[in-house]
Specification:
The protein is mostly beta strands. It is about 5% helix and about 35% strand.
């Protein structure tokens, strides 16, 4: 299914491409010549180009950067390398290497010929159908560096000096689009390096008041104990470039010297839990389970999870609990919970 482009490449954008020299066919750096045989025979040439993740830097427009706030959920540390190697038969071996791939995912990697936007169905400055005579392959991710080669009938000179196209790495975590630039993991000019841009990493903060029974709208579940009722909590999520998430939990108005168990408990079917709780009594240490030492004011703890920002804020269902350090810990008696809320909500 093809999605509608969010930020169409208008004539001013095309002019911007010209002003940056993006439509130049050859790289600023001449192709590196190598002697494949070590003698006086004709030297076969090669050239290598590096492509950073799509942060909108090609068009100098953050709105064209890969958007993981929509359907995609790929870490932003993927990069690509394009290698062109002249062959004795006059063809060119085209090899694309992808770094930091997701194991098992299939990456569509395409060369899209440049075109007049006035002549394309969706006013794109390229042909939406990839050029299979140059490169249109599927690269299987392996959790690290994955690559695939294709022998193109175009000569080395044609590819490095004449051919005009965009190199695109599509996102395997969502439906492919040939118009929505925000779904492209890599967007660069074929045969030109693409420098790194500033990463568009997200943050989110969630606030939790003291447990007065408000989560279940039931005063019988409100805290009942000796701790002061002015304790509050916040959770800060920070997306990392490798797809992991840093979690910072802050407790305000803590008791100096007391150690607070702070947990997330996965939501569960009460009919399947030992004490009919709507959550797993064992905290999920892969998401959030820590101890915070009170200091008489605001105390914090930082931890990291392998779960992505999207998984935590969209998919994960759990209960955020701050247990009372002044009494024995209970995982069933809600009246011992200083804070009771929905995790990351």
């Amino acid at each position: 299914m093809y999605s509608t482009i969010k930020n169409s490449l208008t004539l001013p954008m095309i002019m911007l491409l010209f002003s940056f020299g993006i439509f130049a066919a050859c790289s600023d750096d001449s192709p590196t010549s190598i002697d494949m045989n070590g003698d006086d025979e004709t030297e076969l040439r090669s050239a290598s180009y590096s492509y950073a993740f799509n942060e909108g830097q090609l068009l100098d427009d953050p709105d064209t950067a890969y958007n993981s706030s929509e359907d995609g959920d790929h870490p932003r540390n993927l990069s690509a390398t394009l290698m062109l190697e002249e062959l004795e038969n006059g063809n060119t071996l085209v090899t694309v290497s992808l770094e930091n791939t997701i194991d098992g995912e299939m990456y569509p990697v395409h060369a899209h010929d440049m075109a007049d936007p006035a002549d394309t169905p969706n006013n794109t400055p390229y042909d939406e159908s990839p050029n299979g005579d140059v490169y249109a392959e599927m690269i299987e991710g392996n959790g690290g560096t994955a690559e695939l080669s294709f022998e193109s009938s175009l000569s080395f000179d044609e590819l490095t000096e004449e051919y005009e196209a965009f190199l695109v790495v599509h996102d395997p975590t969502q439906d492919i689009s040939t118009t929505d630039l925000t779904t492209y993991l890599v967007l660069g000019v074929f045969g030109q390096d693409l420098e790194a841009g500033d990463p568009n990493l997200r943050t989110a903060e969630f606030m939790y008041d003291f447990n007065e029974g408000q989560l279940l709208d039931d005063e019988a579940t409100a805290y009942d104990g000796e701790h002061s009722r002015d304790l509050m909590a916040t959770i800060m999520l920070e997306e990392r470039i490798d797809g992991t998430t840093q979690i910072t939990v802050s407790l305000m108005n803590t008791i100096d010297g007391e150690t607070y168990p702070v947990h997330t408990h996965d939501a569960a079917d009460p009919d399947e839990t030992p004490n009919n709780t709507p959550y797993d009594e064992t905290p999920n240490g892969d998401v959030l389970a820590t101890m915070i030492d009170g200091n008489g004011g605001t105390a914090t703890a930082e931890l990291s999870t392998e779960y992505s920002f999207n998984v935590l804020t969209r998919d994960y269902e759990g209960f955020f609990v701050v247990h009372d350090p002044t009494q024995d810990l209970s995982t069933t008696d809600l009246t011992t919970y200083l804070v009771l809320g929905l995790t990351f909500r």
